Amino acid sequence: MSEVRIVSLPGDGIGPEVTDAMQHVLGAVASKFGHEISVEEYAVGYTAFEATGTPLPNETLEACLRGPAVFLGAVGDPRADKLTGDKRPEAALLTLRSELGCFANLRPARVDEPLVAMSALKDEIASGCDLVIVRELTGGLYYGTPRGNEGGRAVNTLVYDTHEVERVARVAFELAGRRRGHVTSVDKANVLEVSQLWRSVVSDLASEYPEVTLEHMLVDRAAMELVTNPARFDVLLTENLFGDILSDEASAMCGSLGLLSSASVGGEVGLYEPVHGSAPDIAGRGIANPIGAIRSGALMLSYSFDLQAESAAVERAVAEVLAEGLRTADLVAPGDMAVSTDEFANAVAEAIT
Fold first, then answer.
1. Lowest-pLDDT range of 168-182, 202-216, 249-263
2. pLDDT band at 333, cuts 50/70/90?
3. CA nearest 168: which of 99, 240, 70?
4. Which of 130, 248, 336, 342 is an active site residue?
5. Are residues 58 and 74 in the same domain?
């Protein structure tokens, strides 16, 4: 028996609902495979701000740093619109990523065959799409200095060094080696010196992974290919800004933000969260889609605990429940069975084999 220790940050809006759903499924995994689940819950986001005056209390941060895995439901609340700087709920997420040393964000984007008709793309284009975007998370324009906005002139600085590029590229190559063996490195090397460094470092590293095929692609072409031929991609490797944009574009082909998971890795502690926001307009109604949270739990099993069979069992169970026709409100089409958040999670838990 192994112990699966999780720091749980349910957060705001629908965060607590989808977090409970994920933990219920993990409980079924533990029962089936003989593990012990240990969960410590802490406040984050606007919920934490209301109670403590900060969206990331020291107690929460210290617990996260102890790890080994942190699950975040969602942060954000309309009442926080008047707040600025490090008082905003989203600031907690940026701080967490930085403090945990999570330099690589993994964003799977797979079109489930039962949901092909839900995609924003034509069925024949969306069908068969199964890719992962590996996004550098702690560098680039979001963090470079100098930066500022004063006197009618604004500045942001795009900076990467060899070490930053190499470490995130290694994550992409190793992931591709476990998938279909293909990395598409996205840049703007025809214009940007930073992208020229990026391309050079990635090309040099490729020699260490002879089983993986590397191609380079300019970001504008990658954006086009994602909506015209997404099935051609296996692993896309991108810097921070490009990855932020392309991963949201990729999400549109899957049918709903509620389906999408993410993992932020690289340090000793992994951070896992569904891609969707806090959706305060539907909070408390029991209609939130828990699939993104459940799949984030599967990523957590894989990356933080090296429980590959258990992770695969969760993915199989989600696929089985979708094939049976169960749908949450965001996915309902004629002939489907509309179920609640808890009902869907229960069905997935029962399907764990």
1. 249-263
2. confident
3. 240
4. 248
5. yes
Q: Which of 142, 143, 336, 342 is catalytic?
A: 142
Run of H or E including 187: strand 182-187
Domain ranges, residue 293: 1-102+259-353
Confidence bin at 255 (pLDDT 50/70/90): confident
Residues 138 and 199 in one domain: yes
234 is catalytic: no
pLDDT of residue 98: 87
Assess whether 248 carries a catalytic annotation. Answer: yes
> Looking at residue 1, what is its pLDDT?
62
Residue 142's CATH number: 3.40.50
Q: What is the mean pLDDT of the chain?
A: 95
Q: Does 303 participate in catalysis according to the annotation? A: no
Residue 34 DSSP SS3: coil
312 and 275 in a common domain:
yes
- How many other CB atoms are there within 10 angstroms of residue 79's CB atom? 12
Do the beta carbons of residue 341 and residue 329 sit within 8 Å? no
User: Would residue 96 count as lying in a domain?
Assistant: yes
342: annotated active-site residue: no
Whether this prediction's pTM lies above 0.85 is answered by yes
* Known catalytic residue at 188: yes
Active-site pick, 46, 244, 303, 330: 244
Q: What is the CATH number of the domain that holds 25?
A: 3.40.718.10
- The confidence score (pLDDT) of residue 56 equals 98
Residue 277 covered by a domain: yes
Q: What phi and psi, each to the nearest 5 degrees, are found at residue 301?
A: -60, -40
Find the radius of gyration of the CA atoms of the chain. 20
